[in-house]
Amino acid sequence: MVFDAIGGVLGIRVGWRDVLDIAVVTFLFYELLTLIRHTRAAQVVFGGVLLVGLYYASELAMLRTVHWIIGDMFGYIVFAAIVLFQADIRRGLSRLGRAPAFRYLTRRATTDEAVEEVVTAAGLLASRKVGALIAIERAIGLRNYVDSGIPLDSRVTYDLLVSIFQTESPLHDGAVVIQDERIAAAACFLPLTVSPQSTELGTRHRAAIGLTEESDAVALVVSEETGAVSLAVDGQIERDLDAGRLTARLEALVRPARRGRPAAGEF
Fold it and tell me: pTM above the 0.85 mark?
């Protein structure tokens, strides 16, 4: 057996449960490191590791006062971390929920027709330099953001999207959320990212990044200053997309590969 060979090399007995245990812990650590990479949480985690090291070092060096102070602080540090990094914790749990094993629970994919309508609307708005923000729901529901706006529940059409974002429209200030191939709501409020890399971006771009940091949604942004079209996915933003590239990216992101069988929720 492979496990017996590994155990013989290490000088211990290794079973399949031990391998599974190590695999799960490795996966969790990998997800944690991926989650905090390039964020402010990375520095905090580094500081926490130093604090834990100091705790054990003070125990070995018999520094009783230092050991007692750090040990007494640990309980409060846990609660403080939960409060300060609640957005990062939500994002991490969302990443776990998007694992391949749970893909059969995903919602119905957006059709090619809806993608074409969104791309057409983005092109018209960009040519007129009219700002816009469109969020497309994927596996994780956006009901909280839909409830913050004005409900519409209408078919996705480019003329309706263009009308919503006209400056004289009462619904232009906010985001449109597309849910189950329909425009669920307009004038929705989205969370702004706190990433230091986004300080030079406008409010719409920061809201698009913020939404995709907390969910798996796709957010399309049209800049009212330059007319450039951008796409935010997983907390990252792709800028200056033309109609062809935008169509390809949206079809790849909001429609799962079929491989000869229908996507979840389709017939």
Answer: no
